[in-house]
Amino acid sequence: NKKWPARAAADTLQERERRLLLETVPGKMEKAAEVERGTQFAININLAINVMLIAGKGVAVLTSNSVSLIASFVDSVLDLLSTVIIFITSKAIAYRSSHTVWKYPVGKKRFEPLGVVVFSVLMLASFSQVLVESIERLMKVMRTGKGEGENPAELPTLGIVFMVITIVVKMFMWLLYRNSPSSGVRALAQDAQNDVVFNVASLLFPVAGSLLHAPALDPIGGIVLSLYIIKEWLETLGSTVTRLSGAVAGKEHLARALYLVTRFRQVKAVSAFELYYSGDEVIAEADVVLPINTALKEAHDVCEVVTYCLEVLDIERAYVHLDYHIHNPAGHLTQRG
Description:
2 domains, Alpha-lytic protease prodomain-like, mainly alpha, Alpha-Beta Plaits, single chain, three-stranded mixed β-sheet
């Protein structure tokens, strides 16, 4: 196909122009590079930590019959799986070729929230199973007055050591990455926060059950922890799906973007303005009214400058539609809401 070389050349020229334009925006490229480096570092360190924690907890689980420790081990396995999912999606987002440029014309940033959806579902499914197992053990204790063995569930020293390590490390990771601009890293930070609560409770319930000779405390701990994790990940799943579905952006972001558009001298009015999520990113659509006698060249220049200025405000794509009358029909035929 003779058109392909021309298209590739045009794309290369367009990409060079885009990068030159970005370089004129103070701090724009540096900020993007810093976010990417921070995301990769968070994912890599989380991956290494989870591998070590799984190894230690796996050995501890083999020497204990505590359902709380089993739940903690399952949580660590899922932590590793979630980190792998985010790692794969981040690599997929970063990879670019002539093929991906045409296949994904607006980039692949939506891969990241899709990864969050996948491991949210995995978390919910796995802890639903832990919840069922805990309920079954509690019912058995209530019938027989005993746990899985002759004695109440006990935590081995190795299990306690790795749980304490988990609490310290995960607390540090949560404090470090809770405000990351990346939804994947924020999900890992939330998971680290959950791990702190989870492992503290996983220590308290079996230890209290052993000291008080109350075998029911261990499965009760498993039930409480499972319900807590299910609640947290339902909220994360709901929030991520809402953004992927195109929910409206925050009022402050909308007010700031709308104010910017109205500051242009040539703009008589803004007949419509929408700011909505598309995954982690925000899309802006503005219907801008210019004087009816505005020359085509001037109208084009105003539209282009407004578009670029909006995209500096952490907006992935801005679509500016020009108009000459405030009461013209809506810019789209598709139904709202």
